[in-house]
Design goal:
This protein is an alpha+beta fold. Helix content is 48%, strand content 11%. A hairpin with a 2-residue loop joins strand 8 and strand 9. The longest helix is centred in the middle third of the chain and has 32 residues. The protein binds protoporphyrin IX containing FE (HEM). Protoporphyrin IX containing FE binds next to helix 13 and helix 17.
């Protein structure tokens, strides 16, 4: 997109679904930060877009003026609003909804899944070995998180195509096509209600069984609460991490020097992953403004939405030195890819483990991979950004 052409519209007409924004949003956000740090659009019934770190932080930490009852910007709000605790919960209920999930996502709990994640990566790589080319997103990245989270929740990994279709309909296509959201929500609800009924009869060592037995104030969770949380974990666990793995592969396919550096110093991979999470943070959430307030000098009106672009905050040069440069050995890196405040990501240990393992295994198998000649790389739009088509030469 010609960012100059976009500037006059920042006060009332930005469009986060514009193909140029989807392909390369960073110069647009840089221009916004300089010229209109809290941009606005009349589209989607009115949405604000803060691009400075400090403003994103202020909103994420303010639950008095902003509600999580709507966390996705859509052409039309779904009826009824989906309930996916804890991400759609506000205080005071949020604390208990979140607390019950924390034990399943501690570093110790997650380290148990590392051998499984490694085996999944090796199996996917074995299928590609001997090929000249592959699609890094479709043949590799997208399969890793879905297998792990299916295992954790206790749903069949064979249903992965179904899960990915729901995600696309809920978070991408459904932004402008409300009927797809209604359809995917219903299908997902019926699916989990059915699996849950079976699990009630035959318990297993999985998160679903845990949620069926856990109590808040001595009371069991309602079926709607359990199904809503399972849906959230499935959605949050899949395309976020798949996007982060894909963006990391894209970076290494297009920056041979960084790839060579990681090959000669594999111990640097976890540091590089933090930098990929900063520079290509996949998740932009949203809030509903519930009480008039001011952010960065700009009045925000109740009833409108405000986006929480953690990816734009991560590129703010007032917080990150040479913010637009990807430095895989960056030491001072307090990025906000996993959010801020009470809703900060519960799955960050799991995501980090999966991304690190995915890159370690990939680099060991395909040290000389690069972007295929004339490759057309496509990116998802909306809440989660990552490559969906990533043609690679395997070397
Ligand atoms: C690279 C991968 C990931 C990124 C970048 C990411 C990012 C985020 C962000 C930005 C939030 C804050 C949402 C808000 O403020 O409204 C969040 C919340 C959350 N994430 Fe993640 N996430 C990732 C992976 C995961 C995984 C693997 C899981 C596990 C299934 C997960 C589960 C959750 C949950 C349950 C919440 C809601 C927490 C709450 O509301 O208290 N995420 N994530």
């Amino acid at each position: 997109m010609d960012t100059n052409a976009m500037q006059p519209d920042l006060d009332n007409d930005f469009d986060h679904l514009d193909p140029a924004w989807v392909a390369d949003p960073y110069p647009i956000w840089d221009a916004m930060r300089l010229n209109c740090p809290v941009a606005h659009t009349n589209k989607f019934h009115g949405v604000y877009f803060p691009s400075r770190y400090e403003d994103v932080r202020a909103i994420a930490c303010d639950t008095e003026h902003f509600s999580s009852r709507r966390v996705v910007v859509r052409a039309e709000p779904p009826e009824p609003l989906p309930i996916n605790p804890p991400i759609t919960s506000d205080p005071p209920a949020h604390r208990a909804h979140r607390k019950l999930l924390l034990p399943a996502f501690t570093p110790d709990a997650i380290s148990r899944y590392e051998p499984h994640a490694r085996a999944v990566c090796q199996e996917l790589i074995a299928r590609l070995t001997g090929n000249e080319q592959c699609d890094g997103a479709a043949d590799y990245a997208q399969h890793i998180p879905v297998r792990i989270i299916a295992h954790m929740l206790g749903v069949p990994a064979e249903d992965a195509d179904l899960f990915r279709r729901w995600i696309r309909e809920l978070l991408d296509l459904g932004i402008t096509e409300p009927h797809l959201v209604a359809q995917a929500t219903q299908e997902m609800h019926d699916y989990f209600a059915q699996v849950m009924a079976k699990r009630r009869k035959v318990p297993a060592d999985d998160l679903m069984t845990y949620l069926l037995h856990v109590r808040i104030d001595a009371q069991p969770l309602s079926d709607d609460h359990i199904v809503g949380t399972l849906e959230l974990l499935l959605i949050a666990g899949i395309d976020t991490t798949w996007s982060a793995i894909g963006s990391s592969l894209w970076h290494l396919a297009t920056h041979a020097q960084d790839r060579h550096r990681l090959l000669s110093a594999p111990g640097l991979i976890p540091t590089a992953v933090e930098e990929f999470l900063r520079a290509y943070a996949p998740v932009t959430m949203a809030r509903e403004v519930i009480k008039e307030t001011t952010v960065g000098g700009c009045p925000l009106h109740a009833g409108q939405m405000v986006m929480l672009p953690f990816p734009a905050a991560n590129r703010d040069p007032s917080v990150f030195e040479q913010a637009d440069r990807v430095a895989i050995d960056r030491q001072n890196n307090r990025h906000v890819a996993f959010g801020l405040g009470i809703h900060r990501c519960i799955g960050s240990n799991l995501a980090r483990m999966e991304i690190v393992v995915a890159l370690q295994e990939w680099l060991a198998a395909f040290p000389e991979f690069e972007l295929a000649p004339d490759a057309v790389v496509t990116w998802s739009r909306g809440t989660v950004r990552g490559p969906r088509q990533l043609p690679l030469l395997l070397g």
